[in-house]
Amino acid sequence: MPAYFDHNATTPLHPAAREAWLRASEKHWHNPSSLYREAGFASQALESARERLGDLLGAEAERIVFTSGATESNNTLFAGLARCLPPDACVAISAIEHPCVREAARAWLGRARVVEIPVDAEGVVQPDVLKRLLLEKQPALVSIMAANNESGVLQPWPELLKMCREHGARFHSDAAQWIGKLDASSLGTCDYLTGSAHKFGGPKGTGFLVLADEAESFPLLLGGPQESSRRAGTENYPGIEAMVTALEVITPRLSEVAQTQTALRDAFAASMKQAFPDLRIISEGAPRLWNTVLMVMPEHSNLKWLTRMSRAGFAISTGSACSSGKEGSSVVVQALGTDWEELKRVVRVSGGWDSTAEDWSALAEAFIEVAKGL
Ligand code: PLP
């Protein structure tokens, strides 16, 4: 693949994560719940990985439950709330949540108990809007993603978290797109936090949910007493070790990467706007992830762009991976009130930590070449 620009869908396995996975699989393949010495070592290694992840997130290790990824983490949270909350309690979620928050909340709690928090024209939750909603609806929990997977928009989550605390609501953030791209060291202050390894160079099928406190227990998967009876099933220690290693390796590089990649991404956006004067970049005026550009192309359907770009050797997307293949199903763009015709022309590019200036300029050139043939 000459140039991969779909890092918000998934990332390649980081070499350090691969090494860690192999080492863990060879050395500690035993079941951490078994009672002999080698199993004890596997259990110790698992607990050490939990401590290291807690350090990276600023969360007590005891609050971390390892899962198969963000989808499971979010389902665990809402299924648990459905069991614990009083029947008349509601939760509030932002209008641009990933389907595994939106659909999970609606399915587990019932649509009537899920209130939507509107976003402004740039896709950001405004604190005064949240404050009004907290006063009017008094939700038990507010769920607002840290960074959006489609537009890359960042939410002012520390301010929103503080406001929820002041109004007695718990705060959850799906930080699957933030972790590994921006400083995650204070995300553990959220009551609940969701993360996914494959978004930051870890393996697929591994993630975590940080709970509000260590005593809290609302398992989605029932069975054995693994994860302190909070998630049944033999722990995927090699995957967990690889996930934590990926985050440890990437974290010290983040400020340098953000600086370099923001400049490259903005140069790409400028070239695109020059080549296509009617092109619109969604949420351009808001703080965004350094790797993401969500564009409304001036003409032609996004599927046409996607297939032609793929033939030219570039992997891009129509929006979120969950909606790819379905023209114009971007949740974010719909929440921003974009019309149906425009929705069909939405294209997302998302670069990586090591995308080069050549990669970004080749991407812009490929769009220009493809346009000539359309
Ligand atoms: N939440 C967000 C914000 C995402 O971007 C994704 C992946 O697309 C998910 C959740 C789902 O993650 P996973 O593939 O780990 O279930």
Automatic annotation (TrEMBL):
Top-level taxon: Bacteria
PROSITE patterns listed in its UniProt record: AA_TRANSFER_CLASS_5
GO MF assignments: cysteine desulfurase activity; iron-sulfur cluster binding; metal ion binding
InterPro entries, sorted: Aminotrans_V_dom, Aminotrans_V_PyrdxlP_BS, Cysteine_dSase, PyrdxlP-dep_Trfase, PyrdxlP-dep_Trfase_major, PyrdxlP-dep_Trfase_small
Reactions that this protein is recorded to catalyse: (sulfur carrier)-H + L-cysteine = (sulfur carrier)-SH + L-alanine
Domain Aminotransferase class V, chain residue ranges per copy: 4-361
UniProt KW Iron-sulfur keyword: yes
Keywords: Iron, Iron-sulfur, Metal-binding, Pyridoxal phosphate, Transferase
Cofactor: pyridoxal 5'-phosphate
Keyword presence, Metal-binding: yes
EC assignment: 2.8.1.7
Pfam families hit by this protein: Aminotran_5 (PF00266)
PANTHER family documented for this protein: CYSTEINE DESULFURASE, CYSTEINE DESULFURYLASE FAMILY MEMBER
The family this protein is said to belong to: Belongs to the class-V pyridoxal-phosphate-dependent aminotransferase family. NifS/IscS subfamily.
Full protein name: cysteine desulfurase
Record organism: Brevifollis gellanilyticus
Phylogenetic lineage: Bacteria, Pseudomonadati, Verrucomicrobiota, Verrucomicrobiia, Verrucomicrobiales
